[in-house]
Amino acid sequence: MEASTRPEGIARGEEHDPTAALSIHDLTVAYDRRPVLWDVDLDVPAGCLSAIVGPNGAGKSTLIKACLDLLPRVSGDVRMFGLPWRQVRNRVAYVPQRETVDWDFPVSALDVVAMGTYGRLGWLRPVGKKQKRAAMEALERVDLVEYAHRQISQLSGGQQQRVFLARALVQDADLYLMDEPFASVDAATERAIVEVLQTLRAEGSTLVVVHHDLQTVAEYFEHVILLNMRVVASGPMDSTLTADNLRDTYGGRLTLLEKAATALGQLAQPK
Amino acid sequence: MTLAISMLDILLLGDWNTRVVVIGTAMLGIAAGVVGTFLVLRKRALLGDTVSHAMLPGVVAAFLVIQAFGGGGKSLIGLLIGAAIAGTAAAWAIPVLRRSTGLKDDAIMGIVLGGGFGLGIALLGVAQSLPGGNQAGLESFIYGRTASMVQADAIVIGVTAFITLIIAAVIGKEFRLLCFDESFGRAIGRREGLLDMGLMLLAVAVTVVGLQAVGLILVIALLIIPAVAARFWTDNFVRMVILAGVIGAVACWIGSSISAMAPKLPAGSIIVLTLTALFAISLVCGTKRGALQRLVRSVGLRARTGRQHLLRSVAEVMELNSTSTWSAKDILPMRSWSHARVRALHRAGLRRGDIRRDGSEFELTAAGRVAADRVLRNHRLWELFLIRHADIAASHVDRDADFVEHILGEDLVIDLERTLAGEPDTHQSPHPLRSGA
To answer: For chain B, which terminal residue's Cβ has fewer other Cβ atoms within 10 angstroms, N or C?
Structure first.
């Protein structure tokens, strides 16, 4: 991956790269007058696997939601491939947090995955054979074909997470925004998901993923956004995930410094 | 005898007036069931109640306006237009109040419902103090007056039901997306406000035509109960919508037939009671999450678990003592079982033919031997799997495996076996992994 041309950690709104997959300029988001994100300014280059990392309440999910107009912005501008989201929404896929939906809902895994085709289908056209086939292929990529017709509450947490991933795969997007896809999944599922993410990247897609585990961030991702209500730093993994930046992101908490040391240890290993 | 004949006569729609009422309410039942399913799945079930109560001031205000302009005051269409306007205003006020005050939906609905209904009652008092007898019958909107339904009413209901079904068929998939995952819908560019508005208008339409039939207090039952009852029979969204329509129609059909036979009983309440009965039946007998089905499943699981535990304990005891027989007291220390449970498990084993009794001793039958080997082997496979593959400390494996193996399918076991065949058994088991599959 190419290193960003501007100095790491310094947000300068005027120099956005027009080829960036995701480019956020001066974004401020507030809940009830209390700002959660301040002046976020960053670029995610096209074709990279990027992690959003930060402590609880840092605004990681908020950042993704604000990019997709799911939350109102106080100020700021978000561009995807140089265009506003509305104009490129069929090239953008979203994986929400698993807890945001009611898994008792009367739909099967296949039904949920087929929802990924709605964007291209429009309001009036029904889900046909072609869409079902695409959904089935996506289920195959996340190894859930045999669960296609199960009602979704009968799936384990990791399987539900993979259903959401499959729904995003069906969208066949160029930019994937994922909110904690690794939350409460077992080790095997985590590896399976990482493989899918890396395949997508190899196919030329850009992925921006909210990630909570500092120990694996350097192993899975190549670009990182360190967030704590503001962007502490963003850029290529090895030059951005430094002990200083981590301390600025998480504060001086000891347990986290320990994790940081582990992460840095992994970085030091030759790739 | 005469009762049986008149019942048949009514159910088969022999009498013209009854035919109008029964068909009219049945069509209302379909429309309410379908729209109600969307409302329930959108978790807006009480929206219907709020809207219907808030319609009262609309009805009475429309009456007063018509009266003031010298109309008879009895123009049904005029009154229903008043109801529709008030209902729409109430439905629109809910999201507006939510956004502007930050209050929760239930509190807002309480405010709108109470305020609207209170205003309606006050206006009703005003209307009733007017000279002339025209205002008589306005109260029928509160409790409904099914029997007075005429052909024109049935046609209005039929048209409303038809339009509702068309809309449901065409954008049902969008409603499904909205109800299941609103934020994903927005992320693919859907305007959930527009869809919610459409859903709300459907609810208003159904409520307006239902006012006359069952009254504004009970119309909520027509919206909610069919959907909730249908959920007990299916895990499929489309089937749930259709079934809710059918349940609504059947309840209205039966309810209005009964009330035609017993004119003293108000039809609205009979319809709602029929619905409640259908709900109770679904709750108990439903094939997807009915109480009976859940009971059967849990009894079955308990029996299966008990059998596997017994067979495994027996196999372990025999392995430990190098014998081929055992007595109940050998089994007791193996598990946290009571004497009664051990005896019950042995009785079940005798019934199944897994074991046979020889005085105070028991021994495995040939079939029981095979089953016990299998249970033991599956259990050890699992232990091995957990130790090797799931990064779980070996000391924690046993209990966990006890529960998991009962959920494990045969295919997975074979698969596991293949994967793990090359690995050494940590138990040094006399039942090697490849045997007895």
So the answer is: N
Q: Residue B215 burial (CB < 10 Å; 0-12/13-18/19+)?
A: buried
Model confidence at A32: pLDDT above 90: no
Nearest to B187 among A94, A102, A151 (CB): A94
Domain ranges for chain B, please list them: 2-288, 294-420
Q: Is the pTM of this model over 0.80?
A: yes
Which of chain A's residues have a Cβ under 8 Å away from the Cβ of B234? 106
Contact assignment for B173 to A68 by CB distance below 8 Å? no
Judged on CB neighbours under 10 Å (0-12, 13-18, 19+), A10 is exposed
B180, B184, B391: residue with CB nearest A107: B180
Q: What is the pLDDT of residue B336?
A: 79
Domains of chain A in sequence order: 16-262 (3.40.50.300)
For all residues of chain B together, what is the average pLDDT? Answer: 83
Question: A212-222: per-residue pLDDT in tens?
Answer: 888 899 999 99
Report helix, strand or coil for B191.
coil
**A89 contacts B183? CB cut-off 8 A:** no
Predicted confidence at residue B419, as pLDDT, reads 67
Assign A118 a pLDDT band (cuts: 50, 70, 90). Answer: very high
Strand A92-95 with A175-178, pairing: parallel
- pLDDT average, residue stretch A82-98: 91
Nearest CA distance, B389 vs chain A (angstrom): 8
DSSP state of A30: E
Determine, for residues A187 and B390 on separate chains, whether the beta-carbon distance falls below 8 Å. Answer: yes
Chain B interface with A: residues with Cβ < 8 Å: 41, 43, 102, 170-171, 173-174, 176-177, 179-181, 183-190, 231, 234-237, 240, 389-391
* Element of type H or E holding A95: strand A92-95
Q: Which fold has domain B294-420?
A: Arc Repressor Mutant, subunit A (1.10.10)
- Smallest Cβ distance to A106: which of B188, B189, B234? B234
Asked if B132 contacts B68 with a C-beta cutoff of 8 angstroms, the reply is no
pLDDT of residue B237: 95
In a 10 Å sphere around its CB, with 0-12 CB exposed, 13-18 middle and 19+ buried, how is residue B430 labelled?
exposed
Q: Is A119 on the interface with B (CB under 8 A)?
A: yes
In one-letter notation, the amino acid at residue B434 is R
pLDDT digits (tens, 9 = 90+) for B18-55: 888 889 999 999 999 999 999 999 998 888 999 999 99
The pLDDT of B181-194, averaged and rounded, is 90
Name the fold adopted by B2-288: ABC transporter involved in vitamin B12 uptake, BtuC (1.10.3470)
